[in-house]
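CHAIN AND CONFORMATION:
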Amino acid sequence: MKYIVTSDKTAEVMGSGDMPVLATPALVAMMENAAMLACRQLCGEGQTTVGGSIHIQHLKPSPVGAEISVETQITLHEGRKVEFSIEAHQGEVLVGSATHTRFIVDRERFLSKL
């Protein structure tokens, strides 16, 4: 997946810092989104995935306008549990890496528990 750093995704706007660079929460959202989309092939009718955990390293800053490429790799699929290795790059530069766990759930059943 490819994403553009827009001003609404900066640390100063999101409140996670005071610099006009990609916020870590925005990077997390990019990584989770890419993993969620990669899981679609594993979901049946009426199913989706929800995030369970993410362990991230935000390694380099990215300015507004930068293109971030996020690559996911499924490292484990065991029943409802799906684990990922994720990397985010700005060009050739590694800006973040993560391990992420998602769970396949029945959409209606999950929402009925709220």
Q: What stands out?
A: The mean pLDDT is 97. The beta strands are 2-4, 47-58, 67-78, 81-90, 93-106. DSSP finds three helices and five strands in the chain. Residues 24-39 form the longest helix (16 residues).
